[in-house]
Each structure stands twice: as C-alpha cells, then as structure tokens.
Specification:
Length: 436
C-alpha cells in the first residue's frame, strides 16, 4: 500500500546522506519533498502541516550528535514523528473486568466489518477467549448468513435472529445476545452492525441505539484504507454520530496510496488497534505504530543501523569512562557528562525509585535533589575546560572566580571539588575490585 510513499520518502532523505553538515536550507528542501510525498499519498492537509512543522523544528534544533551523522539524525526524527502520528505506543484491546467484554463494530457498508468480526473472533480464540459473534446488521441482504459463515470458519458461535422473522430490531437482537453470552459464558461479544454506502442520520441513530443497549467496552470504527480522503470525513462523522474508542484499518493490502491510514488517528484522536491486510481470516493483526512507520519509511535496515550506532556510541562512552575510572583519571568534565546523561532519564527522584536494593543508601540518596544537581552543574559549567580536565589546578583564587561566576559560595565550590576527589578515589578502588 505504501510503495510510492516509501519510495518518495526514501529519495527525499537520501539526498541528505551526501552532506556532512545540514544547513537550514537543506532541511527546508527535504521538508518540502516530504510534504509533497505525503500530499500525493492523500494524507490529510492538516496532518501534513503539523508533521512538517515538527520535522523542521526538531531537525533545525537538533543538538549535534556524536553517534549519528546529520542525515541519520533527520531519518530518526522523521521516523519518530511518523510513529507519533500513527499513535505512538501500541494500544491493546480493553477487556472488561467483569465479562463479557462487548466490542461493537461500526463503519460504512463494505468497510470490512463482517469479515473483521470473523478475524477478531479467530484472533480472540487463539488468545484463549471464548468469543461470540452477534448479527445486528439486519439491513443488508445476506449479512446475517455472511456473519454465520465467517463465524463457522473461525469456529465460534454466532447469535442471529431467527430466519423469517422479518427485518427485526437490531437493538433487541443486541440485548438478547448479551444475555445469552452471559448465560453461555462467552467472555467476549463482537457485535456486527449495519453500514450504509454513505453516512446518514438513520445509520448513526441505529448505531447509537445499539451502543446504548449493549454498553460496549470498545466501539471500533472500521475503515477501508483504500477510500482515500473520504476515510477522514467518514471517521469524523462516526466520531460525532456514534463515538468510537479505536480504529481498525482494513484493506491495507490494496494498492491505494495509504494516506487515510496515516491521517485517521491524528484527525480523530483515537488509536488504531488492528489492521487487516487480506480477505482471509488470518490476514489480520494488532497494529504497531513503530512497525508501520518503519515499513512506510522503507528503511528498516537504516533504522536498525541508527539504533546500533547509538548503542555502540553509548557503549564506547561507557568503556572510556570505565577506563578512566579504574585509572583514577576521571575529570570533572566526565562527571558533568555522566550527570547530564543520568538527568536525561528523568527527575532524579524517579531514578532512585528504580534502583534495586539501594537499601540503606536510599536515605542518603534522597537528599540528592534536582536543585542540588542544578547547582553542581552550574559550578562545573563555571570552570574552564582546563580546570575540568585537571581539577587539581583549582586553587583558592580560581575557586573564588568560579563561585562568583556561578552564583554560589566558595564553600560550595570547595565542597564539590573535595567530594569529587573523594569519589574519584573511591571509584578507582571499586573499579579495581570489580575488575572493570
Ligand atoms: P461490511 O459491509 O463492512 O460488513 O464489509 P465486508 O466484511 O462484507 O467486506 C466487504 C468486502 O471487502 C468483502 O469482499 C471482503 O472480502 C473484503 N475485505 C474485507 N477486509 C479486507 C481486507 O483486509 N483486504 C481485502 N483485500 N479485502 C477485504
């Protein structure tokens, strides 16, 4: 589905790889290419605008990375933003605390709801659930039979109104189905509802009535990813008319441009839970924003390389630090770097909470608050590179200058320098003991 988009994005990003440094003009040019690629893929204009603005802002403001070259950095940013518009974290199905969990399917006719009901049933069965399908699409001729057929194929029970009972009332069917599910101990109920060719009020009202009758844990809006921009307007209509808690994209195996898939989460604010990519019941899986993003970028290998480069760089840094530790050559510059690296992980209090078995050290550690760290950071920043490299040269007059420059007392500077020497000595001893 995303072939053309993939090709264009790859081409846009590849022009960067030959550059050593990226100017703002380079970034603007790449952003322009990405913008055209997204618009041609039918991604909603608003989504494209936000996306491009964020890419530009982040790429221009990116700190120089020692692990990645500029082109890799931009690829990394584009990938992260793509994951973001696709919803970030994988969203799992909400299961009710007291069964049965009720999942209602809503969407236009032909979106793939009935097929999805079968796919979901099979998927749920594999996860150890005992699902039941409910035929509430009493509008489309054959819809009930079709659901019974997919139910049989998936090996699950289908609850349907008796044949020859006229058109029937879907709300009544839904209600009776829930009672039956409780009675027969089905822990998940999947309710198939009627769709129309277009959005209309009657359709919305019926879906809303069924919703009120069954009080679903999830309302899944099922949308055909091949319908392009219409997917977004349909999604908005269903959001306002029925409301939904998640999206299922179908027909991702088609050769349409795929923009709908990229827009629907951002436009509706609801996550994509599943994706269907074929007519068979197996052609279905949980939707993972990160996997989808790397598929769209068509750069799985490059992204792995980027990850490895970053890890290798961290590893190199760690080895360098360990070497310095054991030889007692740790400088204040290293100390500052370590401190910044740790702080990137979040407030120090949270980190302490994660330390296993910190035991009696915890009280002591608890006194290290973020303000204190800010101060230490300011003091080290107030030193010259030569002083950070060789703290022994920090004599009385230098201490006074540093104190004045960083807005602290000389005593605080003394404290830091003395503690640093103590820590360095202790670390060298420990390093020797642990054989770094
Ligand atoms: P409903 O009207 O929403 O219940 O839609 P159906 O489940 O009847 O599906 C409409 C058509 O789309 C059927 O021919 C399905 O076989 C087909 N279909 C459903 N999901 C997919 C999919 O993921 N990929 C492809 N290629 N076809 C699908």
């Amino acid at each position: 589905m995303f072939d053309t988009l993939s090709d264009r994005l790859t081409a846009a990003l590849q022009t960067l790889t030959r550059k050593g440094r990226l100017s703002d003009a380079d970034i603007d040019a790449t952003a322009r290419e990405i913008r055209i690629a997204l618009l041609e893929a039918d991604v909603a204009l608003g989504v494209v605008k936000t996306f491009i603005a964020r890419i530009k802002e982040r790429a221009k403001g990116a700190e120089v990375s020692q692990a990645l070259n500029p082109a890799q950095q931009v690829v990394k940013i584009v990938n992260e933003e793509l994951v973001g518009i696709l919803g970030g974290e994988t969203r799992r199905l909400n299961l009710a605390k007291t069964p049965p969990t009720v999942i209602m399917l809503a969407g236009l006719q032909g979106a793939g709801k009935t097929t999805l009901a079968g796919k979901l049933a099979m998927w749920l069965k594999k996860q150890g659930h005992a699902p039941m399908l409910v035929a509430c699409d009493l509008q489309r001729p054959n819809a009930v039979t079709q659901l019974q057929v997919v139910g049989e194929r998936a090996g699950v029970v289908t609850f349907a109104p008796e044949p020859g009972n006229g058109v029937g009332d879907p709300v009544d069917v839904a209600r009776r189905a829930i009672a039956e599910a409780k009675h027969a101990q089905h822990d998940v109920v999947v309710v198939d509802t009627a769709g129309r060719l277009g959005v209309d009020e009657e359709l919305m009202k019926q879906a809303a009535d069924i919703r009120d009758a069954v009080n679903p844990d999830e309302v899944l809006f099922v949308v055909d990813a091949m319908i392009g921009q219409d997917a977004v307007t349909t999604a908005e209509a269903f959001r306002d008319g029925v409301g939904f808690s998640g999206v299922v994209l179908t027909k991702l195996d088609g050769d349409a441009r795929g923009g709908a898939a990229l827009s629907v989460r951002e436009v509706t604010g609801q996550p994509i839970l599943f994706a269907s990519n074929g007519e068979k019941l197996e052609d279905f899986d949980t939707f993972h924003p990160d996997r989808m993003a790397s598929r769209i970028l068509g750069m799985g290998d490059v992204l792995t390389l980027i990850e490895q480069a970053e890890q290798a760089f961290d590893q190199q840094e760690a080895e360098k630090a360990a070497e310095k530790l054991s030889s007692g050559q740790l400088t204040l510059e290293d100390f500052l770097e370590q401190m910044l690296a740790v702080r990137k992980m979040g407030p120090i209090g949270n980190l302490l909470g994660m330390l296993p078995g910190a035991g009696q050290m915890k009280d002591q550690l608890a006194q290290v608050d973020d303000k204190h760290l800010d101060k230490l950071q300011a003091i080290i920043r107030g030193m010259t590179p030569a002083e950070r490299d060789n703290p022994k040269m920090i004599n009385g007059s230098r201490r006074l200058r540093i104190a004045n420059g960083s807005g602290v007392t000389v005593r605080e500077v003394n404290d830091l320098v003395n503690r640093f020497f103590e820590a360095r000595k202790m670390m060298a001893q420990m390093a020797g003991r642990f054989g770094f």
